[in-house]
Amino acid sequence: MKKTVCGIVFLSLFVLVVEAEVRSWTSATGASREAEFIERVMDDVTLKSSGGELMRIRMNQLSAADQQYVANLNKPADSSAARASDNKDHPLVELFGSKLTDASEKSADTSELDGKKIGIYFSAQWCPPCRAFTPRLVETYKQLQQDGKPFEIVFVSSDRTEAAMYKYMKDYKMPWKAVRFGSKQHEALGEKYQIRGIPSLVIVDSDGKTLTGSGRADVASRGARAFDSW
């Protein structure tokens, strides 16, 4: 395992992540709790309570009905689900997952990034250099949008909790999307791009090819003018 200078650990795993409603979950012992399904990592299931607490439980510790429910989540129920399955090998889906989230916690399709240069922004609210750089990045992003440049940013949070991630996004008025907190992609991106310190801004194209790992320095020195050099 590798760490950044800010103590971030990244781990790559195979997972199933889907959109699911809040429902009642029952353990094999009969205990029940309201929660939302977040992901399945092999035989480990992650749920999120209404209060935002993440809970991990083994598949065999769930009731038989809940085990079947999780198993069915991996089966396309309609043509849109089938299309999503067909796109699972798209480079951007591999990088970010099929769904992103914004500051208001609404989901968005990763397909919105197609045809654009993408800045992958590794940052956290607790990191002073990040707090100093984020307003500059917000300003640059807004200028590029105003100029009609094909550019998007995907935030990869190194905050300690999902709630802290959303607070950071709201407090700094981040107008872009983020990788889902705790997902496979959230854990793996730092390893893929060898992130050893934050803030860091990696620029890729819509096929996931790295254009530069020096996006932070480019934006800090040239702002929106940096776009044409990527």
Describe what this molecule looks like in 3D.
With 230 residues, the protein is of the alpha+beta class. It has two domains: 19-73, SLA1 homology domain 1 (SH3 type barrels), CATH 2.30.30; 91-229, Glutaredoxin, CATH 3.40.30. It contains seven helices and twelve strands. The protein has helices at 64-72, 79-86, 91-96, 128-146, 162-171, 184-192, 215-222, and strands at 16-17, 22-26, 32-41, 44-49, 54-58, 99-101, 107-109, 117-123, 151-157, 177-179, 200-204, 210-212. Strand 8, helix 4 and strand 9 form a beta-alpha-beta unit.
Based on the structure given, which CATH architecture of the largest domain is correct? 3-Layer(aba) Sandwich
Low-confidence stretches: 1-5, 7-19, 76-86
Structural class by sheet pairing and helices: alpha+beta
Query: In the CATH hierarchy, what is the class of the largest domain?
Result: Alpha Beta
In one word, what is the shape? elongated
Q: What would the average pLDDT be, to the nearest integer?
A: 84
CATH level-3 fold name of the largest domain: Glutaredoxin
What is the assigned CATH homologous superfamily of the largest domain?
Glutaredoxin
- Report, as a whole number of angstroms, the end-to-end distance: 31 Å
Q: What are the secondary-structure elements, in order, as H or E?
A: EEEEEHHHEEEHEHEHEEH
Largest sheet: 7 strands, mixed
Number of domains: 2
Helix percent reads 25-40%
Number of strands: 12
Using only CA atoms, what is the Rg? 18 Å
Strand order within the widest sheet?
Answer: 7-6-10-9-8-11-12
Number of helices: 7
**Hey, roughly how much beta strand do the residues contain?**
25-35%
